[in-house]
Amino acid sequence: MISDNTKIGTGLLFLGCIFLALGMLFMFxxxxxxxxxxxxxxxxxxxxxxxxTFRFFTRxxxxxxxxxFFVGIFLVMCxxxxxxxxxxLYGIVYLFGQFFPIAAASMKDVPVVGSLFRMPAVESFFxxxxxxxxxxxxx
Length: 139
Hints:
Elements: H1 4-25, H2 30-48, H3 50-56, H4 63-78, H5 81-96, H6 99-107, H7 114-117, H8 120-129
Helix pairs in contact: 1-2, 2-3, 2-4, 4-5, 6-8
């Protein structure tokens, strides 16, 4: 059974991604990007819990990604949308890079897009993307 906090968090994560996409679509509008960042972080906190979120963002082995992600959020809040989003994208790839091959492997079973993820070029891209052989979810 999924708890109510997880349901709320998933909704907030979805809305955060929508606002981030709209902010990038509308020429890196800082207000939409900032709202998307706040919704994304609050949704992540609701979904996995406060203590796991705190542990995730205080891991020493991922300090470069953490710093770039939060500096990117700060720059977006200050009105520098493009540079902030570039830093956030680097931080997200650095923080969640090990999760992408896991997600790609599970997407192979999805009926419509599964054939796309079974293509040799896509498989080799995702197999080399997350840092080699250590397949462990980041959270």
